[in-house]
Amino acid sequence: ESCGAGCRKGYDGAYVDLFCNAPTLRFLSGATPHCAAKVCERNLPKGTGLTSDCLGKRTNQSCSVTCKRGFETVATEEESHATCLSTGAFTSSFVECSRMACGDLSATP
């Protein structure tokens, strides 16, 4: 008898045929599929004042999301992490950033 094996969701690779070894039928023979994690391309962190190292991350990899210079977090966390899911999208809870106030500029020379 024969069956097949392929890559899990979030990974690319060719489907391979496997065969039962006669006469014991206790194990399969054949090539093992070679699977490579897919690059996440959906729900990349974006927004006013956000920066991240998420570009090019692949399934199950994480990245940091922070506020750019001149911006500050609205919440208490200084950074958040996004994870590339098997769906090809990043998790969607990122820090929120707002432009920092300059303060009183009349005192500057």
Brief overview:
0% of the residues lie in helices and 32% in strands. It is built from no helices and ten strands.
Describe this protein's structure.
The chain is 0% helix and 32% strand. It is built from no helices and ten strands. The chain has a three-stranded antiparallel beta sheet with strand order 1-3-4, with no helix packed on it. Strand 3 and strand 4 form a beta hairpin. The mean pLDDT is 84.
Per DSSP E runs of 2 or more residues, the count of β-strands stands at 10
Characterize the largest beta sheet: strand count, sense, and whether it forms a barrel. Answer: 3 strands, antiparallel
Question: Uncertain spans, ≥5 residues at pLDDT below 50?
Answer: none
Chain-averaged pLDDT: 84
**Which structural class do the helices and strands define?**
mainly beta
Run of helices and strands? EEEEEEEEEE
Oligomer: single chain
Strand order, largest beta sheet: 1-3-4
Alpha-carbon Rg, integer: 24 Å
Number of helical runs?
0
Q: How many angstroms separate the termini?
A: 85 Å
